[in-house]
From TrEMBL:
Keywords, comma-separated and alphabetical: Flavoprotein, FMN, Oxidoreductase
Organism: Paraburkholderia phymatum (strain DSM 17167 / CIP 108236 / LMG 21445 / STM815) (Burkholderia phymatum)
Segments forming domain Nitroreductase: 23-215
GO molecular function, one term: oxidoreductase activity
SUPFAM superfamilies, sorted: FMN-dependent nitroreductase-like
Protein name as annotated: Nitroreductase
Pfam families, sorted: Nitroreductase
Length: 247
């Protein structure tokens, strides 16, 4: 791929529309069709995603792709632990993905997306059995045919987590170009030892995130959930010269 090549469309407006479409239609899909995704498609997505930015071009990410029998075996191993209260008690993430203390507005947003999903599925507050079942669907990759795990070397710093996050975004956006959807999943983190054991991931590699990849089941209730995003003015501060005016 020539990184200095001109845009593939007749106008920059067409380029902008395509990019904006891919970014804005990316969403976390929680129900997939069994329709297979070819090895060539997976490799094509990763081949584009590899052009992600990284500090001093370290490219710290490593990707583990699971399909078929390996994916089935891994799901079974995770669910065996997840369904055992004794074995799952005390499992810890390899790093702090979420804050140790939740505060507003982040707690409010977390609750909203959780109860919006459960509301769609008719899961009432306090129904721990159905909550556990729904959360456990993470570990079957929401029936997607492809699972991805992203790792970095344990010697890397926080910056490499940021770099890998940008790489993940590239993967998800590139997937849209193939008509595919994704779901990035921090839910896998506490099972990092199980995942490393089944996939024989070297000890020096730390799990950063999991992801489901496939064709969305557009008829599922789960996939009618569209989460809200804050407007630009809510998270942006423009530092302007006092003489500047806006119209």
């Amino acid at each position: 791929m020539n990184r200095l090549s001109p845009p593939p469309f007749a106008s920059l407006q067409d380029v902008r529309r395509a990019i904006n479409w891919a970014i804005s239609t990316r969403r976390s899909v929680r129900a997939f069709l069994s329709k297979p995704v070819s090895h060539e498609e997976i490799e094509s997505i990763l081949d584009v995603a590899r052009f992600s930015a990284s500090g001093v071009n370290m490219q710290p990410w490593h990707v583990h792709v699971v399909t078929g029998e390996v994916k089935t075996r891994l799901s079974a191993a995770i669910k065996e632990v997840d369904n055992d209260p004794v074995r799952s008690l005390g499992l810890e993430d390899p790093y702090d993905y979420y804050p140790r203390e939740w505060v507003t507005p982040y707690l409010d947003r977390r609750r909203k997306v959780g109860w919006s999903l459960y509301g769609l599925l008719g899961i009432e507050k306090g129904d721990k059995e159905r909550m556990h079942f729904q959360h456990g669907r993470n570990y079957s990759f929401f029936d997607a045919p492809v699972g991805l795990f992203f790792t970095i070397d344990r010697v890397m710093g926080v910056g490499s987590l940021l770099d890998t996050g940008m790489f993940l975004q590239n993967v998800m956006i590139a997937a849209r170009g193939h008509g595919l959807h994704t779901c990035p999943q921090a839910a896998f983190l506490k099972f990092h030892r199980v995942i490393s054991s089944v996939l024989q991931i070297p000890e020096n590699q730390m799990l950063v995130c999991g992801m489901s990849l496939g064709y969305a089941d557009e008829n599922s209730l789960e996939n009618t959930l569209i989460t809200e995003r804050e407007p630009v003015r809510a998270f942006t501060t423009f530092h302007r010269d006092n003489k500047e005016t806006t119209k």
